[in-house]
Amino acid sequence: MKKNILLIEDNPDDVKLTLRAFEKNKILNEIVVKTDGVEGMEYLNRCTLLPALVLLDLQLPRMGGIEVLRRIRTDPRLKLLPVVIMTSSREERDVNEVYHLGANSFICKPVDFEQFTEVVRQLGMYWLLLNEPPPEPTSPSIS
Amino acid sequence: MKQVTDHPSIIINQEPLNPSEPATGAAEKESADPELIPTSLLNFSEETYITLLQESALLRTHIYQLEKALKNQNPDDDGKPKQELKERLLMARILPASSLQLMNLATKTAGMGIWEWNTTNNSIHWDKRMFDIYGIPPTFDGLVDYSTWKKCVLPEELAEQERELQLLVQGQGGGNREFHIRRASDGKCLLLKAMEALYIDPVMGTQWVLGTNLDITEKAMAETALMESELRFRTYIKESSDSMILFKGSGSIIDSNKATCDLLGYSPQELLTMNVAQLEPDSDLNPSREVWRHIEPGHPLLQEQQLRCKNKTLVPVEIKMTCYEYKGEKDYFWLARDIRQRKQDEAAIKKLNNELEQRVKERTADLAAANQELEAFSYSVSHDLRAPLRSIDGFSRVLLEDYQDKLDAAGKDSLQRVCAASQRMGQLISDLLELSKISRKELYQIPMNFSAMVHTLADELQQQEPGRKVEFVIQPEIMGTADPILMRVVFENLLENAWKFTARQKAPRIEFGQTIANGVSAFFVRDNGAGFDMAYVDKLFGAFQRLHSMEDFPGTGIGLASVQRILRRHGGIIWAEGKVNLGATFYFTLPETNNKPAS
């Protein structure tokens, strides 16, 4: 069973464009979309199989992306999850903070859709094909 | 002479005069050993001397009588009364001799001259000190002519003095006079104090004037000097704008000046009845109260405190406190300066300073707030404006891709323009954010090699467009001190501009180096490209200002604004020279200390 991708993004346009970019690049993994941090965390805590990748926006309602990242990294079950920050901002503050919190990558979404598609293609290629995923955590129910 | 032998001096020739001795004023006086003289004698008043003289004269008369009686006695008489007379004479001589000696010693010490005038036979005797005072050689027997004295007295005072003497002889005056003489020996003007008394010989009926002369010139001069000095210091104190208060160890005020009265509102008389404690505010308000009690002579104390005025108000003063010791008792002196004005000035300055500080704080807070706003704005610009742009561009492309067959050429062209515009706006936003980042970035200046940086950037440009052939002329080893990250932005922009504007040049050439321009050492980037019209040179460095059309040379107009901002932050300046189609040169400086001239 192919692992899915969790996209936490509140902007429906960006969601649609991201999905389109994945589709165009023939990335067939299921993409689960959550539109705020709280929903995103709920999904992660509930799911039996962790996603292959979390695409995380920073500006989110209810719980911001930085808080989501912090929770993922402090949760023993989630802490090895590959998290790629995808945001419109290139604020140095943010870059600095998310790397310190243990983000795997920081990507500034380009305005140009062609560039954006290319970014998504490379992302999928790298994280889903090239990168050796971290070992699956032993689930609490098994132990 | 005969007369004199018959009527000898009644007191004077107790001490034989030696005519060979020079008549100097001080010689005799100095020879007296004060230690041998009872102090009581030194303190004799002139009146006492006169009384002594009169008593001496009486004794002398008595002796004279006895001598005469002894001489006139018949040698045939039995020796008994003669023997008795002799014994009485001996006793009379011994008694006055001792008292006269004492008097002599006293007058000698005081430098006082004694004279006597027998008005009956008009003979005048002086003792040796009289001759000394008048600067006249002593006569053998002390006899002096009246005219001798007259000649010495200052002419303008003579008439008055003679009148006084006349009154005395008539028994109508008790002389106590002062007059000036001109000393015969050197013409020096002396002030003499004279006292006389009348004496009538009870036996002979002879009338005598007995007198003393005392040279008080020096004493008078000293007194005058003292008075002058007193007057001078009085004036200083009176006219001083500082308050002065003199008081005893008990605190009772013994003197003050006008400034004190003006300052405290008391009259001089009131102050004389007061104690300094009344001028010092209560101790709980004033810890320095009575601090004057601890000062010692020669160790003045300067302190600020308050004094209480008559109307109960308190005046801030700076007091210099001194004390001096006289005969074992300490007197204290306050020199107080009114520092109300100074205090007011100090308060005003403090207030101004506080206000200034407050204003600086407010401004700083304003600035910090403005900065925060700017940051928030930048953040929201980058987030909120770029997201919709991405949608515009993205969905335009969706249309172009998914509905290709339903769109005609004009429709496709329109959508492409939408995409281009949104991308351009995205670029503008990025550049604007870059510019704001440049302004906010902290400067980190280190010595660096500009030539090496230009080389690297030139290579990058060449790699991006391998099809273009541009000649780079870079002066080697040009060094400077600057922030490398920001300098990279400077060179990137200047070189990209040069690269861009030489695109239509057949033999494009870009130079970098250091030269003297406008009289200063400046770095330059020169190209032989499109150049510009100097009429628009002032628009070159403004944000979003462009001198070329987008079709000719694309760009956002942010680059040179960023360059100028970076150089200004370093303390440098930038300017440009250009000619249409003949290229442009950008000169820039960094502060002198940062520049190392090309070796």
Instruction: Count all strands of chain B and give the number.
Output: 18
CA-CA gap between termini of chain B = 124 Å
Oligomer classification? heterodimer
**Which class of secondary structure composition applies to the elements of chain B?**
alpha+beta
Just give the CATH class of chain A.
Alpha Beta
Helical residue percent band of chain A? 40-55%
Tell me the domain tally of chain A. 1
Using only C-alpha atoms, the radius of gyration of chain A works out to 14 Å
Low-confidence stretches of chain B: 1-7, 14-42
- The amount of beta strand of chain B, in percent, is 15-25%
Give the percentage of residues in beta strands of chain A: 5-15%
CATH fold name of chain A: Rossmann fold
Q: DSSP helix count of chain A?
A: 5
Could you estimate the helical fraction of the residues of chain B in percent? 40-55%
The first-level CATH class of the largest domain in chain B is given as Alpha Beta
Layout of strands and helices, then pairs:
The complex is a heterodimer of chains A (143) and B (599).
Chain A: E1 5-8, H1 12-24, E2 31-34, H2 37-46, E3 53-56, H3 65-74, E4 83-87, H4 92-100, E5 105-108, H5 113-130
Chain B: H1 2-6, H2 27-31, H3 39-42, H4 46-72, H5 79-110, E1 112-118, E2 123-126, H6 128-134, E3 143-144, H7 146-152, H8 155-169, E4 176-182, E5 189-200, E6 207-215, H9 217-239, E7 243-248, E8 253-256, H10 258-264, H11 268-272, E9 301-308, E10 314-326, E11 329-338, H12 340-402, H13 409-440, E12 446-449, H14 450-464, E13 471-474, E14 479-482, H15 484-501, E15 509-517, E16 520-527, H16 559-570, E17 574-579, E18 583-588
Parallel strand pairs in B: 13-15
Antiparallel strand pairs in B: 1-2, 1-6, 2-3, 4-5, 5-6, 7-8, 7-11, 9-10, 10-11, 12-14, 15-16, 16-18, 17-18
Helix pairs in contact in B: 4-5, 12-13, 13-16, 14-15, 15-16
